[in-house]
Structures are given as C-alpha cells and as structure tokens.
Specification:
Two copies of one chain form a homodimer. The first copy, chain A, is α/β, with parallel strands linked by helices. Chain A is built from 16 helices and 17 strands. In chain A, a hairpin with a 2-residue loop joins β7 and β8.
C-alpha cells in the first residue's frame, strides 16, 4: 500500500515553520507496513491544492492531508476538498457537539465561525477530533482514501494514533516493512562503506541499506519488505550481526535510539548516575537527556553556568582559575566537571565551556573553540574542539561530541 | 520568480529524519523575493526523481534539489540528473582538489569512491563545496535553473549563503516580498480573528494575512508583494499598527522573533538579569534562552534539579517542604524560584516542577501537572497547569507557559 502526505499552508513554504508532522506520520505509517511515496507541501491556493490531489491520486492508495482547517479566512482546505470531490456541505452534528464541548470547557462564547467549523463536505465521513475544533474528514474515490486532518501536531497525532492507524490496519492486508538501525560513531561514511562493502553487495533485492550521517555519527539502516514478518526480522538480524561484527568498535547501539538514550540505557544497567555542568551548550545537553522517559534514574541534574559567578558558586570553579586561564580552558572545564562530581554527588559528569558565537571570539580562541571534560570519581579527561562560526551548530556539535566522549569513557571503565 | 524544493532520500519518507533544510531554504528564498511554490520529498528511486523533476520544471523557474549525493550506493541523484539532462560524466578538477584538501585536513587516505565524488554530469557548472566532499551542481534547461546540493544542513547552508543566493540576486530582477509578524499570547485564534475582522477585510489583494498558532501563542503574519520595497514596508506597517492598536494587550512583539527573544530584548533594555530553576523541563528553558546570541547579557544561568538532593543543595529547597508537599507543589516551586534569586543573584527567576510523564503520575497529581513560579526580588507568583499525557509536549508547553508568565510579570513591574 502506497501513501502520500500533502501538507497545506503558506507558513511552510515561506519557511516560518518546520514541517515536523510529515516525518512523524511517515514513521507511523511505515510501522504498519504502509510505504510513503512522496511528501508534498503546497500553498493555501485552490488550483495548487487541486493539482496536488489529482497527481497524488494517480500514485497513491492513501492520501493524508494536513493543515488549512482553521476557522480563519486563509484556510481553504475544506472548500477545496468539496470542489475536488464535487460535494456540497452539511453541518455535522457530532463535530458541532465537540466544538460546543471544547468551548464550554474553556468557558468561551461560541462564535459563528466556530459553528462553521462543523461544516463538512457532505460525502465525507467525519472522525471527531477530541483535541480541537476542526474535524477530521475521510473521503474515498476510485479506491483511494483521502484523509484531511488539522495541522496542529498534537491534534493530528491523537487522530492518527487513536483513529486512523487502527482503521487502516483493520481494513487492509499490508506487507511488512522491517527496519533495523545500527548507530556508529567516530568513523566517516566512506570508511564505513568500504569496511562493509562485501556485506552490502550480498544483500538480496528486498533488503536495502542506507547511510544516515549526522554530527559525527553515522546511522546504518537495513530495511526489508515482504509478507512474512518473522522471516524479515530474522533476515535483517543476520545482516545486522555481520555488519556489527565487521565494525564492532564503532558501534554505539543496534537500537534505533539517539546516542544519549544509548548512554542512559548503559548507565542505568550499571546503576551509574550522571550530572552536567554546561556553559556554552546552555542546558542543551540536559535537555537531550531529560527528553527521554526514565532519564531521572540516571540523570540527577546539573548547572547551566553562563556567568563566572555561577561557575564559582554552583560548581566551585576557583576565581583564580577563571582569571588566569579564562572560562574557555582546560583548567576551567576540568574544575567544572570535577565540581559537578563533588557537588552533585554523581558517578560521572559532563562539562562544556566554549565560545558558541557569534561574538566573544579572540585570535587565540576563535568562535567555535570548545573545551569538553568528562569526569568520573577517579579521573578526568578533557579535550578541545574547533567547530564552526555558527552558534546553533556549535551548540549541537558540542553536545554530540560530549556525549561521544562520555560513551568512550564508559566503554573503557565499565 | 517561482522556486521549488525537491528533497531526495528515503530517510525523510520513512520518517527517520525531519526535513529542516526546506524551511530554512524557503525562508532565505523569500527574503530575496523568490516565492516557493512547492516542496516535494521523494525517495532514492530513479523514476520517481525523474517525474518530480519533470513536474517541477513545468511550474518553477528555479529548482533546488538536496540529498542523495553521498559516496554510497543508495545515493543516485547525480546519475539521475545526468539521465534527466541527457549528459555524460566528467571528473571535475576543482571538485577533486576540494576532496583532496578535506582528506588531507583529516589525515585520511583518499579512497576510489571519494575520487568519484568529483564525477559530475558534463554539462553542469560545479560550485565547489568547501565543507564537504559532494560538489554542488548548477544546470540550466528551457529557462529553468536546477541546483543540486548535499543534504547535510551546514554544507547546504554555506552553499546557499555564500554562493547560490548571491548568484540569483545578481542575475534576476526579483519582486519584493515584505513580511511583518506580530506575536500575540493569551488569546485564541478565533477571538483574534473576530477582533481584527474589519482590518482583515480591508486588506488590498496584494497583502495577505495568516494566523500561525503554536503553544498558546498566535503569530499574525502580513505579507505584501510588489515592485516597490519601500512602499510595501510602509503599507504593511500601516496595517500592522491598526492590528496592534486593536489587540494591544495581547501583543508580545511586532518582530518575527520567538517569545524568549522578545523577553531577552526587553530585559536587556532595562538592565535586568534572569536565572532558571528547572525540574521537569530539564534544561529546555535554559536552552531556548541560550540559543540566542547575546543572551549572556541577561541570562546568568541556572540549575537543572532533577533529583531531590539537587533541589536542596543548589536551590536551597527545604527537605521538609519536599517531604510534606512533594516536589510538584506550590511550596516547592516557590522555594525553587526564590532560591534561584538568592543563590544566583539575578533580578528575576523562573522555576518549573511538574510530572512530564509517562511515569510518575498519581490520582491527585496526574501526568501533565506542572507548577510554575516567577520570582523577582520582591514577589513570587506561582500557578499550576494541567497539560497532556505526552512528555515532549509537556516540556514544550511548560516552557512556553513559563515564558508567558515571566512576560506578564515583567509587563506589570517594569
């Protein structure tokens, strides 16, 4: 079964928002064996939407449409769908009831434009949206299903999880798609490719291998498609094992999880605790860690010490160290990491101090100079990096490098 | 001038990565007066790429293509472009020299597949990529420009900023597109629409108004298109002023910046300082603040206090408060905020303590219960929120609500 995703809204095409919906939907569809053929973002323009629907109908069995369902004048998806399917409008009782309940909950008066949110093309089936005022609409035409959803991420996610995905799995016999991901660090894409060339060449036609590089890590993804799920799992496991044994020292994990989650899992299994002492990464490492459920079992917390005063008061960095060597130095980052171990009483600590930019660089320490230290109770290792002149990149690359360093220390010591 | 963006790569269609490139490219193109008509994501499949190129050529004057240029076998963009334009291959001397330099810098041996990265379709112009081994390629056919770039974000960004955008602006006479954004908080989309209905109805055809709701905020965007830039700026300013005076008490800023940046700007102009004390948001608020250049003038730092021990040791929360009322309580969050003021010596502090989930909820305090406090030297306000059962959403909504609360306190006191 082939699906396409169409997102409607000028805000994506002028770059004001990043389309995170499509990746999430694609992931869920793949999990139930539906392949996504194309993702298309079009403007709030009738002719353009009609053309996108027409082309998608020639390629796909299932078309998921998000956006353009708000109550305001710039939202024209509903009108355009009615035109595409040549339908009139009805005010849907169940959709109206949901709008009423939402307005009652927030004790707000119901306006005419809110009542109109329950107007739908008369040939569609309404799926009630419990988290918002725009109903979800299901159309069928020439064996293709069209589903229109609001673009607000959590409304779309609830509708997909609770309504749409279950309906699709129960209505269709779908092939299985099995993915297996291996996360590697500290090896470049080309070298990895050369190392595993023979394994790659031996893959059967229904199994594909992809390389996904990001911030010093390369994710290898094996994807197998077929009718027998158990067999597919076995097959990808065989190839995954071959790859892992070939490049073992670069393998972080064979689960499809980010580096920090792999570290959390490893530390949790050993009963180890972690804290952070961040300057230029400004809480980003803490955020990466704490976005994962269960992180509190390992991560106790930390300091975001932007000002000198906080480096001293929370982490116990000596004033003389800051004055002699500067905040971005081996000495300061070492005292930050060791201070975190001492004050936060964890087994390991990460410390980062650098110049994220765009200001603050000097000839000796240009923007992008970042010191990272990893401490355990017995030992501290510190290393300097020279990243780019872009602030957000420096923050992200510092975090990725700090986590990779922590993993190396853990591999050596536990 | 109309542009389209085509991203090539299975990783987007299986939802393994979010396509952030397209939004960034669209934003840059809009700034120079190029409208993006469509963004299309297709798989690493020859027929599909060829069809996407053909359709885009019928609609656009400029087609930006990213992805599929890696050295590995799953990357087929270059071969497919050669087929589309009916070209052979040449090994490009400038591209090869860049590959050599990069491998020299990292002291890695040059492999055959790396040398092949300098192979390009023989009718294209090569734009050297200083940050990676895949060259950028510029094609022209039937008055349409096709530009193929690597999908690695920072390589693409450098090529766009330093090479492609300057070439486009100097080669074409482009219309101007002027955007003006007004950020509002604490008012729903429909109510906002009703408040400014008359102004919206009075807009001329070349000025559009869009509503962009997100996390309790609504961004209003006026977009004007025409040949006289100064006139367009004047026009949107007139309508923006009308809107701002109509809904003044909900307006955060009339710049296209996020809430935390508006707060930083306001606090900086008044010489005020800020610290944070985060539990369930785990450093996310600190990260939102510190991603902005110049944040160190206002933000001194803070604590990520996940464990009870750190709430006590860094923030001075009393053990008896934690034991009597729990970590998620008005009393604890108040002591966290006041502790931050006292220990970090800032003028204002944000504190957040809640149950982000999925575990840790109780009947009395279900997942999504979040206490937020804002302290100044004179006063603390605390408020409880009941968000959803999804961890990431709870973190994001807690941060957005904390920032909105801080803004309200600042508006009342400074």
């Amino acid at each position: 079964m082939l699906a396409e995703i169409i997102t409607i809204g000028d805000e994506i095409l002028i770059g004001q928002i990043v389309d995170t919906n499509s990746a999430w939907m694609a992931k869920q569809l793949n999990l139930i064996g539906v392949s996504v053929k194309q993702i298309t973002s079009v403007s709030d323009d009738e002719q353009h939407i009609l053309e996108a629907l027409r082309l998608a109908e020639t390629r796909a069995d299932l078309i998921l449409i998000t956006g353009g369902l708000g109550p305001t004048k710039d939202d024209i998806t509903k009108k355009t769908l009615a035109k595409y399917f040549n339908m009139g409008f009805r005010n849907d009782a169940a959709a109206l009831e949901m709008v009423r309940q939402i307005f009652e909950k927030y004790k707000r008066p119901l306006l005419d434009i809110n009542i109109q949110q329950a107007d739908v093309p008369d040939g569609c089936e309404v799926i009630v949206n419990k988290n918002g005022t725009a109903p979800c609409m299901w159309f069928e035409q020439n064996n293709t299903i069209f589903i229109s959803m609001p673009g607000v991420p959590y409304e779309m996610m609830y509708l997909m999880d609770d309504e749409i995905l279950p309906r699709i799995t129960s209505s269709f016999k779908l092939p299985f798609i099995v993915h297996k991901t291996i996360l590697t660090a500290n090896i470049g894409e080309s070298f990895l490719a050369k190392e595993i060339e023979e394994i790659e060449d031996s893959l059967p036609a229904h199994i594909k291998l992809a390389y996904l590089p990001k911030l010093g890590q390369v994710r290898l993804r094996l994807s197998a498609k077929g009718d027998n799920e158990a067999e597919l799992h076995q097959e990808v496991e065989v190839y995954a094992k071959q790859i892992i044994s070939k490049v073992n020292k670069f393998v972080v994990t064979d689960e499809d999880i980010p580096l920090e989650k792999a570290i959390l899992d490893l530390m949790k299994s050993k009963g180890l605790t972690l804290s952070t002492a961040e300057s230029c990464t400004g809480g980003y490492i803490a955020h990466l860690i704490t976005q994962h459920p269960g992180s509190s079992a390992v991560y106790w917390g930390g300091a975001v010490a932007y000002a000198y005063e906080l480096k001293e008061s929370i982490l116990g960095v000596k004033e003389s160290t800051l004055n002699t060597f500067g905040a971005v130095s081996e000495q300061t980052v070492t005292e930050m990491a060791e201070g975190a171990i001492e004050h936060f009483k964890t087994d390991y600590a990460i410390a980062v101090s650098g110049i994220a930019g765009p200001d603050g660089g000097t000839e000796e320490k240009p923007v992008g100079t970042v010191w990272i230290a990893i401490s355990s109770k017995h030992k501290t290792v510190a290393k300097v990096f020279n990243f780019s002149n872009k602030r957000i990149q420096n923050i992200e690359r510092s975090a990725a490098s700090a986590l990779a360093m922590l993993l190396n220390v853990l591999k050596e010591t536990v």
